[in-house]
Design a protein that fits this description.
The complex is a heterodimer of chains A (410) and B (91). With 410 residues, chain A is α/β, with parallel strands linked by helices. Helices cover 37% and strands 14% of the residues of chain A. Chain A is built from 15 helices and 13 strands. In chain A, strand 6 (129-133), helix 5 (136-147) and strand 7 form a beta-alpha-beta unit. Chain A is globular. Chain B has one domain (2-86): Ubiquitin-like (UB roll). In chain B, strand 4 and strand 5 (64-65) form a beta hairpin. The longest helix of chain B has 12 residues, at 27-38. Chains A and B meet through strand 6 and helix 7 of A and helix 1, strand 4 and strand 7 of B.
């Protein structure tokens, strides 16, 4: 199938053909897609990329979908890489960019992995799709399923923000609101998908799903003029985005597309749910599961992160680090990003901004480093976090004198 | 009690994904019982060489992750449901 060589276990190295395996058959470790790199080299050239469509399929050689007809065309990807001069100045950096995935079709980066997973579900003729979600994945899966004419089942915590439960229903999915946390929803979703033979994008389609997230890194590389940044700040829920960013870098390197330099990968979680950060700080490098996540950054509220151990290893290997700002810092990060760059991110975006702010202040990130912030979800999905933060607006009479009084005599 | 297994683990129980057992004891004792029924392949499938559960295996007793309880010493009541699942969470 195309350029795919097969699947390999990231834990024990066992290799398999690229079939519907969920986890390693030997150790249950996570599987990753491997490519025929020499063949990819022939086709994946800078010249060829210049003439391709501006969506994630422009990197088709490094995506595990051979059959073009199975793709769902929501045109996810190729989002702006914004030069963030104002935010850079506010933080004391010289070179900062914001990779703005708030503008994807369903307003988060999840449209990328879902595009690949739904294509696989169609390739394999699965009867239905779904996911367990902290919010963003729900909308992405439901929208792609709608376009693909597939029934969709979304499992989420019943306590999730209303907007995030509303969107998948509008796209036509069946939402299963589970009493409990994301991890509870994930457990029952896993069993349900297993029983019915459904394709759950982040569960039994996970090895393929993970590949879509790499395109964030490929785009960053291309938009920086085929260069990688010195540091990239990544929000972490399960840790899978961070491992995918690393895989993207490794693949570009294997293709001979990375001339020099070295990218530090930095992970960010909210203090109220920081199992990976706490693991990074521990000598054994094992995530510290959180039973009851408590943070406004709900999209990152995964207490038992499946890719946490690998994410920790990657941050250590690349000379990166992990940090967990407080909710107040996260809100301030959201506000700073909005006021300096005109980008309204959800709290996950505020989390990366807050982590960067801390790191510049204490010197973990140098002022001359070229930094990319991954901003992965749109603030309009989580308006409730602002309740009571800004003062209430007092209505003004439609009268110029009243306006002057309102403006403080200006 | 009822033992629920996801497909990747059920290869060690001859494909059976739901097993009813007359049992009361600890998780470790439960898995010894299941091993008696299905052979040592079950034990090697979920335990590592040190006698602890493999890192990518999650166990839940009545929906509670055993790591938050007493691990393999967690009591399994007569009417419990135990889920044995590969660790996959989140996107």
């Amino acid at each position: 199938m195309g350029y795919v060589r097969g699947l390999r276990c990231r834990e024990c190295g066992a290799e398999y053909p690229a079939t519907r395996l969920t986890v390693c058959d030997a150790c249950f470790g996570p599987l990753e897609v491997r490519y025929e790199i020499e063949a990819v080299k022939e086709a994946f050239t800078r010249g060829a990329l210049a003439h391709r469509p501006r969506d994630l399929w422009r990197y088709a050689e490094l995506l595990p979908v051979a059959d073009e007809a199975s793709r769902v065309d929501l045109q996810a990807g190729f989002t702006p890489l914004r030069r963030a001069e104002n935010l850079a100045r506010a933080l004391g950096l010289r070179n900062l960019w914001v990779k703005d995935d708030t503008v994807n079709p369903t307003y988060s980066f999840k449209d990328r992995p879902v595009a690949v997973a739904i294509a696989k579900a169609r390739e394999w003729g699965l009867p239905a799709v779904g996911c367990a979600s902290t919010g963003n994945l729900a909308a992405a899966t439901a929208a792609a399923a709608a376009k693909a004419h597939l029934p969709c089942y979304v499992f989420a915590s019943a306590h999730l923000e209303p907007t995030k439960l509303l969107l998948p229903r509008l796209y036509g999915a069946t939402v299963v609101p589970v009493c409990g946390t994301y991890d509870d929803a994930n457990r029952v979703a896993l069993i349900t998908a297993d029983r019915h033979g459904w394709g759950f994008v982040n569960i039994n389609l996970r090895p393929y799903y993970a590949e879509g997230s790499k395109t964030l890194l490929f785009e960053t590389w291309e938009q920086l003029g085929f260069e990688l940044p010195d540091a990239v700040v990544v929000p972490m829920g399960s840790g899978l985005l961070l491992t995918s960013v690393d895989k993207g870098i490794q693949e570009l390197d294997a293709l001979g597309q990375v001339e020099d330099g070295h990218t530090r990968i930095i992970g960010s979680q909210p203090e109220g749910c920081a199992p990976i950060v706490r693991g990074f700080e521990s000598p054994d490098g094992r995530p510290r599961p959180v039973k009851r996540p408590a943070s406004i950054a709900e999209s990152l509220a995964i207490g038992d992160p499946a890719s946490g151990f690998e994410a920790i290893q990657i941050m250590r290997r690349t000379g990166g680090f992990a940090d967990a700002p407080l909710d107040a810092e996260i809100l301030e990060g959201q506000r700073l990003l909005a006021r300096t760059e005109g980008v309204f991110a959800e709290p996950a975006g505020g989390t990366t901004v807050a982590t960067l702010k801390r790191a510049v202040e204490d010197g973990r990130i140098g002022r001359d480093e070229r930094v990319v912030l991954l901003v992965t979800g749109n603030g309009l999905k989580t308006p409730a976090v602002w309740n009571g933060v800004l003062p209430a607006l007092t209505p003004v009479a439609p009268d110029p004198a009243a306006v002057d009084r309102f403006l403080g005599g200006a | 009690m009822r033992l629920v297994l996801a497909s990747p683990i059920a290869t060690a129980t001859r494909g059976e994904r739901e097993i009813s057992l007359e049992f009361e004891g600890t998780l470790d004792q439960l898995f010894t019982e299941v091993t008696k029924r299905y052979g040592n392949g079950f034990r090697t499938r979920i335990y590592d060489g040190q006698g602890t559960l493999r890192r990518f295996v999650n166990v839940y007793v009545n929906g509670e992750d055993a790591r938050y309880l007493k691990g393999l010493e967690t009591p399994v009541p007569r009417d419990a449901t135990v889920d044995l699942l590969p660790a996959i969470a989140g996107g």
